[in-house]
Design a protein that fits this description.
The protein is of the alpha+beta class. 26% of the residues lie in helices and 33% in strands. It is elongated and about 55 Å long.
Length: 125
Amino acid sequence: MCFIEKKVDITITTEKDLITYLKKNQSILKDYFYRDGVYSFRQIKDNDLELLESWKTISPITIQLVVANGHDLPEEFIVCFYWIEVGTIKIDDSKRLTLNIYEKDFISILDISVVLDDLMKEKTE
């Protein structure tokens, strides 16, 4: 399977059962509002509720920092690393940002620091 710029998955196959399955279970396009290299942020959709529920049983890596007033980030969104959902970011009323990383096997502390550095750059610009 490959990914094309127009957000379309293409699978080369002649297996009728697979084609029927894929047509029946087409994925919902993700709403990425920020991408930078290997990580991205996206809106939470209804089809993410099962994933978010499964993360409730995992002890995350949690990092907090304060964001600037006037930022344009949503209150809660998903963090992806190489297009894999790895955690969430929540911003409360006091402008405290909480990054929770649940899929620790897919992202290193160094990569998490890159995300945080970029968030801090956004804060100061």
